[in-house]
Amino acid sequence: MRAWCTGPRYPAGPVGARAFVTDLGLAKDIRTGSRFTRSGETLGTPAYMPPEQARGEIAALVPASDVWALGCVLYECCTGAPAFDGESTVEIVGKVVAGRAPAVRRSRPDLPAALDAVVARCLAAVAPARYPHAGALRDARRTELLTAAGVAPAVAQEVQSFRPEVKAFSPNAASGGEVSMRDRIPSFIGLAAGFLLWSLVITGASILLNSVMEEKSNKILEVLLSSASATEILTGKVLGVAMLTLSVLVVWGGIGTFGLLSASPQTAATVGQVLMHDGLVFYFIAYMVGGYLMYAVLFAAIGAFCETPRDAQTLMGPIMMILVVPMLVMQMALTSPDAPVVKVLSWIPFFTPFLMSARAPSDPPLIEIVLTLIGMFATAALMVWIAGRAFRAGALSDVKLSWKSLGRAITGRG
User: Fold this and answer.
1) In 264-396, which ranges are continuous DSSP H helix?
2) CB-CB neighbours of 16 under 10 Å
3) Residues 111, 89 within the same domain
4) pLDDT tens digits, 141-191
5) Residue 171 located in a structural domain
6) 236, pLDDT greater than 60
7) How does residue 208 score in pLDDT terms, banded at 50, 70 and 90?
8) Residues 325 and 375 in one domain
9) Is 194 within the bounds of a domain?
10) Residue 118 sits in the same domain as residue 224
11) Greater pLDDT, 305 or 332
12) How confident is the model at residue 7 (pLDDT cuts 50, 70, 90)?
């Protein structure tokens, strides 16, 4: 574990460097007047320190040095006592340097001789005599057990090198058997559509919010309201920012498409086929339009009450918390698109456009698609009506923004 430590109570060293902590077992209270630890000093827990480290031979430390510490842990697990113990640190270090490790069966004669041999090899006095690394210990022990069970040594070695090849099969696969990349592409496209909508809301709606705030602070909204209704201004702003954001997305999408066509024409063709299959592209467009409309008009209404970004933070906090939820659940939908939590949250209008886009590859029932679209656009229409009233009230008043003032503007009492 690594951590950079600094602070007024624990100042940096003489050369101005911060303290670099490499082990929770290493600590020094500099308030007691003790000197700083210098490079090259022997540090560590003496009972688990390999002989080469105890002698200060830092350059001799290799993975087999960690195997020594592992052997100490194994010994203590078997016997209940440390392999190297003493009245003082000096005595313990002396035993470690001597390299005379006690046998496990001296304290526990009931344990197998094979286990005693494993621990003894881990605690060999010189590094080359130990297992070269922990993986070698595992492989050697596995081979030993297989051989003891009557398995030929050659077969045991093959078992060590065997790596299973796992393949996924599904009756819904395009080939009717093994799941191919063609079958996984819809999942990636659905997740990408959800994240794209989320980015569209964050960037586009934020632009709309800042635009309305700037016009409110400069009294431009009051001039505009003298020649157009609040609904007309709100609609124009939402559509204008939507076209601006869409133009940017089209440019970047074109660059990405060109790159995909150049790098992998076959994958690009597959993506096109997936998008056109059963009108999936129109499915994504419908949810994107409804989702953007819901959040855009809400951001515009909030902007009408604010003159600075700090004013908007009162209401932006809860909205951003709502937007975090689909980000977390969409990742779950990539592996389990029909999980109960995904299906339930996809019926909530504020989450619907994100989660239904992510669920598209699982072919949700038509009734769910129709009802969630109706619920989403009904909520969007309600948000337009609410935002229109709040937009006009906020643009013509200097009331301090709060949930109470927003509620009064919606109900016509503010």
Assistant:
1) 265-276, 280-304, 309-335, 340-345, 352-359, 366-395
2) 7
3) yes
4) 887 778 778 888 778 777 777 777 776 665 565 556 666 666 677 777 778
5) no
6) yes
7) confident
8) yes
9) yes
10) no
11) 332
12) very low
Task: Please spell the DSSP secondary structure of 68-103, one letter per residue.
Answer: HHHHHHHHHHHHSS-SS--SSHHHHHHHHHHT-PPP
Tell me: do 145 and 263 sit in the same domain.
no
Angle between helices 403-411 and 309-335 (to 10 degrees): 90
Parent domain of 2: 1-37
Q: Do 132 and 280 fall within a single domain?
A: no
Q: What tokens appear for 363 in the block?
A: 């072919």
User: In terms of domains, do 57 and 30 share one?
Assistant: no
- CATH code of residue 102: 1.10.510.10
> Cα dist. 395→77, 126, 160, 298, 384 in Å?
73, 81, 73, 14, 16
- The secondary structure of 231-254, three-state, reads HHHHHHHHHHHHHHHHHHHHHHHH
pTM above 0.85? no
- Helix spans in 58-180 (H): 63-79, 89-98, 104-107, 113-122, 134-148, 153-161
Tell me if 391 is assigned to some domain. yes
